[in-house]
Amino acid sequence: MAAFLESLRKPSITNQPPTPSEQRRNDLLMIVTILFAIFLGWGLRTNSTGALRTFALGNQLPNLAYPATWLEAESDGVLFRALDPASPSTFDARVELTVRDVKEGETLDQISVSWPLGRGQALDRFRNLNSSVIKNGEGAPGLLITYAYIADPTRESGSLGLPVVVKGQDLLFVANDGIGDRLVAVTVAADATEWAAHADDFSAIFASLGFQAGE
Known about the structure:
Radius of gyration: 25 Å
Largest sheet: 7 strands, antiparallel
Number of strands: 9
Mean pLDDT: 84
Number of helices: 4
Order of helices and strands: HHEEEEEHEEEEH
Low-confidence stretches: 39-48
Distance between the termini: 44 Å
Strand content: 25-35%
Shape: elongated
């Protein structure tokens, strides 16, 4: 790159050397061209990383948006799952979605107790870190549960990778699909060491459902 720039600055042997003002003009044009290329590349990267895809829950339920670079993956027990194939960890960052009928008389207060208990039975070394009630733009409440657990992503493949400490958040809220009330549960999770790197992705996922969720 340095040699190429120097060749642009060097006068041709068949022409008169440029005057100082012409040299300054050429230098300015070079700088503008380089800056334009840098900003163009930055803009293309921003557009690609910020793009979202949508999964429709159906009926009158809200749509779930997730990063366009993530790949859908089948999984038993969930309605939808998408993984980030670019995750450095053996545990890919992910979003999962489940929807079920609300049980008769069931409230968010009851769910705030029963949901972590179920997670504790399903996840190894589960630890509930925080539970809080948040509201969407219309004032409807949701439950945000933050937790950690141990996962062994390489076990199924027979590899000898180390277990991973996973951090996750479950956003739970009740929505009516025109037929009845449904409990919508949206899970985001990542290797705990990569959580901050995926914070914007997770925020965009929750925001698509109308909730602004923090730590």
